[in-house]
Amino acid sequence: MNVEMRGIWKAFGANVVLKDVSFSLKGGEVIALLGENGAGKSTLMNILGGVLPADAGETLLDGKTVVFHNPAESLHAGIGFIHQELNLINDLAVYENMFIGRELVQKNGLLDAKRMIQETQGVFDRLDLELDPRAMVRDLDASYKQIVEIARALMMKASIIIMDEPTSSLTEPEIERVFAMMRALKGQGVGIIFISHKLKEVMQICDRFAILRDGKMVAEGAVNEVTTDDLARFMVGHDIRTMALQRQRDTAHEVLRAESLSDRKFFHDISFSVRAGEVLGVTGLLGDGRSELFQAIIGAGSDYAGQVYFEGKPVKVRSTTQAVDYRIGYLPRNRKENGIIKDMTILENGSIVTWPRLAKFGLINRLRQNLEFDAQVTGLRIKLERKSDLITNLSGGNQQKVVLAKWLSTRPRLLILDNPTQGVDVGAKEEIYDIILDLADEGVAIIVLSSEAQEIIRVCDRALVMYHGALQGEVSGDSMNEHDIMRLATGATLN
After folding, report:
1. Of residues 341, 325, 322, the one with CA closest to residue 391
2. Per-position DSSP letters for 340-355, written without gaps between them
3. Yes or no: is domain 254-489 CATH 3.40.50.300?
4. Which spans in 410-491 are helix H?
5. Are 283 and 449 in contact (CB under 8 A)?
6. CA-to-CA distance for 207 and 212, rounded, in angstroms?
7. Predicted TM-score (pTM) of this structure
8. Could you check whether 3-236 and 254-489 share the same CATH topology?
9. Mean pLDDT of the chain
10. CATH classification of 3-236, choosing from 3.40.50.300, 3.30.70.270, 3.40.50.1970, 3.30.70.100?
11. What are the φ/ψ torsions at residue 59 (nearest 5 degrees)?
12. What pLDDT digit, counting tens, does each position of 362-398 carry?
């Protein structure tokens, strides 16, 4: 199947997000659709996927004009859409999510769970995926939820598959498995639209690229004719820095020290410290226990043995409210499930942790609330139309900035950032790195949790590497390179 979109326009009120955009895809090719957050990528694909109507322009499948009024019509035409924000229901089993909206029934009208489980298992077997179809989705980590979404699209036998940030929560082996699936589908004539901010992956898996900037198509071409630097420059309109960003600071004052922390499940015998003005990285492979370790430290995870010292005093933080009182901020790994409140506005999400400070006699000082949030919007360059819009109206990267704004508004002494640039474009990534470094210059202790070795190398002063819940080693200076980090992350030593 071939897809062509011609002269697409789309506006939300006075905000024009797509301006005369044309885009095409042939069956059997993988095209990267790139651009900064808010450039219009998701909107364009939502039009193709039947989620939104275009204001002007036309869509053609194999040369015939089509109009999709809803996602079901798009799917029926052979277009599968794996959204950036996962569309799984946590309280249903995997197989139930795989068949939701098209359940198999027996002659007596009852659901045919046996057949649905068997067919789900058949898809998993083809993908060499060890996952029980009867497992509850709520018990899966983010990477397996993503894989279930991909498997569901494949089960629907789509001729065109839109993948919006499909690898943002996956480990390297899982990413390679997804790429193997994509290559197999490409060989079967399936066309794939790959939306990603990971430009190395684009170079690895895509045939062509198309780049949106401020709602306009600004560049197209063959991937083998450009570099990642070229793609980044097309996306933001200027060259992107690639050098390490560490700065010299006075880091004499210890802010946090952990001694022999263990919870017997996710992490064991962990000791480390971080000082004011220091950017400490913690890395490894997904599932290494780093998120669980720091959730426990801030009172949001499991109980643990061992001792934590904050500003030189022994503490046991038992709730996130208490962590805020200590002025400890924590940006969670999973933005959708733990970072935002979907039914609240942008302003409410960006200021919620300051409500106790802004309230008097139970009433929030709205003027101060708005002034403080406006300052964060300016400083973080958050792209929004109205503060009163729901947080879900923003792109993923701008949602991430609002979550960061929430914690910056607490004026933290310690800021823990778990995967801080997830779903963030290359330009916004640089802005977040500058924010991290500026906070460190102001004396804030920063801990960055990330699976991206390049991110750790660029922004951190030193890094701890975890393996299977244990601290495998520490890197700094010349040893803070991708090779040594990967050796430690896979259980080897540097000796």
Report:
1. 341
2. --TTSBHHHHHHGGGH
3. yes
4. 426-441, 453-459, 482-489
5. yes
6. 17
7. 0.67
8. yes
9. 88
10. 3.40.50.300
11. -120, 135
12. 898 899 899 999 998 988 888 888 899 999 888 777 8
